[in-house]
Amino acid sequence: MIRENYTLKSEFILTGFADHRDLRTFLLVMFLSIYLITMVGNIGLVILITKEQCLHTPMYFFLGNLAFVDSCCACAVTPKMLESFFSKDNRITLYECMAQFYFLCTVETADCFLLAAMAYDRYVAICSPLQYHTTMSNKLCHQMTIGAYIAGNLHSMVHVGLLFRLMFCGSNHINHFYCDILPLYRLSCTDPYVNELVLFVFSGSIQVFTIGSVLISYLYILFTILKMKSKEGRIRAFSTCASHFLSVSLFYGSLFFMYIRPNLLEEGDRDIPAAILFTIVVPLLNPFIYSLRNKEVKKVLQKLLIKKISLKKV
To answer: Which of 12, 116, 265, 271 has the fewest beta carbons under 10 Å from its own?
Structure first.
């Protein structure tokens, strides 16, 4: 009987914005605009870093990968969410659900490790500038980046694999705008204790390791900045690090709130706002935080703009 019900409940309905039908047009325009800006900003940054030789440094190598991951994150969530504003019942099959979570989990986990790698890169650049090019070799940069993508894939494969042990025979309404793993646990007729434990252990370990790496790196950077004799240098370094740390705090804070907390299966009123923060807002802000405040990127953009204007005049 359970197996029969499981077959019947292999399709779900996403109801994240179902209570805001009167705001459908406004939400559609807002999220579509954010999606387009996010994609243009991140993909544009990837192309810029790839083409410009002066940006072929470890910092921009990691930044280009972060921009790529952020664009993937937007692609994993936003198109399905935009589709929900047109459909009467936003249905998604169990396998589509698993695929969406797999893709999102992969890029978000890779994001965590890339942010840790970027913090370490800044630590070496500011605290040990003479050893920078020796320490941050091309080989190490590629190893750290490949490791981030492998870790993301392995992490998502574990959770998606464990979803096959669950059966769904109750409600098929997911109170979210994308197919997250926690709502599936809440809908399961099978006890999801093992899944919940594995999620807490794996996600907790990844967050502790990556957040710890970021905090230690920024603490050393802070101590080094305070020792600087140049007031202008201190202000510039503080400004850059503060904006970077803001992005990191928003991303890790929302992830921590979502997946590393007691009573994971209890549905909270802030689950959707927290998910919007790390899946939509952070990918939108990152190109502006990491690039448009950067002198090298500004110079390259100005050079390309001047070149384009000159060609038009000719």
So the answer is: 265
Instruction: Please name the amino acid found at residue 6.
Output: Y
Cα–Cα dist 229/252, whole Å:
33
Residue 136 and residue 144: Cα distance in Å, rounded? 10
pLDDT digits (tens, 9 = 90+) for 81-105: 998 888 777 888 889 999 999 999 9
What confidence score (pLDDT) does residue 228 get?
A: 78
Sign of the torsion formed by the C-alpha atoms of 266, 260, 63 and 160: negative
Largest CA distance in the chain: 76
* Contact status, residue 90 vs residue 13, Cβ threshold 8 Å: yes
* HEC-encoded secondary structure of 191-209: CCHHHHHHHHHHHHHHHHH
Q: Got the DSSP string for 249-273? A: HHHHHHHHHHHSSSSTTS--TTHHH
DSSP class per residue in 145-206: HHHHHHHHHHHHHHHHHHHTT----S--EE-SSS--HHHHHHH-SS--HHHHHHHHHHHHHH
Handedness of CA 302, 308, 309, 314 (dihedral sign): positive
The per-type count for the chain, helices as H runs and strands as E runs, is: 12, 3
Look-up: residue for tokens 């929900």? 84
